[in-house]
Amino acid sequence: MNKLAVTDIGRSKYGDAWTLQQKLFEFRHFGLVGDMLLYTEHEHVYTIGKGGDENHLLATESELKGSGVEVYRIDRGGDITYHGPGQIVGYPIIDLNNYFADIHRYLRCLEEVIIIALNSYGIEAVREPEFTGVWVNGEKIAAIGVKVSRWITMHGFALNVATDLLKFDRIIPCGIFHKGVTSMERILGERVSSDDVRDRLTEAFGHVFGCEATVVSPGALEERVRTFELGQLNHAENKL
C-alpha cells in the first residue's frame, strides 16, 4: 500500500505555501520525498489559473488594497477563485505513476474525496457534469485546480467550511456566471471543527487512493526541506 505523509502547515500566506509546494514538487520528482498531502488555510487571496480571465476579477485595485486581499496568477488549471480563513485547502503532491496516469481520473478522485467527507456530515454533495468541483443544491462548495507535470501533482482543492462567502462576490468564481457558492457552515447552520473536517478528508483520501496516511508535523517537514536545500547548496558549491 502506498504511504502518504500528511502535514497541516496552518495559516499561510499564499506565496509562502506556493513556494513550499514548488520545492516539494521537485523533491518528489527526484524521489527525495514520498507522496504527501499538505493542508492549510490561506490569508485572503484571489488566484487566477493559467487559463483564467483577469476580467473575472471584479474588485478594483483600491478595493483589494483596502481589504488586504492579494492576487496571484499561478500555474494551475482553471479560472479565478478565492482562498481565505475558514476554508480548508488541500495540496496533494503525489506521483500518479503510483496510482494511475490519468489526469481526468485524478480530478474525479479528488471530487470523490470531498463528496465522501461531506456525506459523512449528512451533506448531499454531487458532481456537476459540465464543471469540475463539488456542488450542493446547485452551489459550489469545493473548487479544484491542479497542475500535473511528469505525473507529479501540485495545487489541489479548496473546501468552504466556514468561509466568508462575501469575498466571492468580487469575482466570477471559476468563470461560472450563473451559479453561487456555499459552505458547510451555511448548509448545516452551525460551525464545524476544521480539525475534524481535515481528519475526514484524510480518511476519505486514503480510501479513494488506496494509501495509508501518516501525520508529519510542520516542524519535521520544515527540517526535511532545510536538509535537502542544504544538500543542493553543498552540491552546487562542490561543482564550482
Q: What is the gist of this entry?
A:
The protein has 240 residues and is α/β, with parallel strands linked by helices. The chain has one domain (2-234): BirA Bifunctional Protein, domain 2 (2-Layer Sandwich).
Topology:
Layout: E1 2-12, H1 14-29, E2 36-42, E3 45-48, H2 61-67, E4 70-73, E5 80-83, E6 87-93, H3 103-119, E7 126-128, E8 131-136, E9 139-149, E10 152-160, H4 184-188, H5 194-209, E11 211-215, H6 218-239
Would you write up a description of this structure?
The chain is globular, with a radius of gyration of 18 Å. Helix content is 35%, strand content 30%. Helix 1 links the parallel strand 1 (2-12) and strand 2. Mean pLDDT is 93; it is low at 235-240. Helix 3 (103-119) crosses helix 5 (194-209). The protein has 240 residues and is of the alpha/beta class.
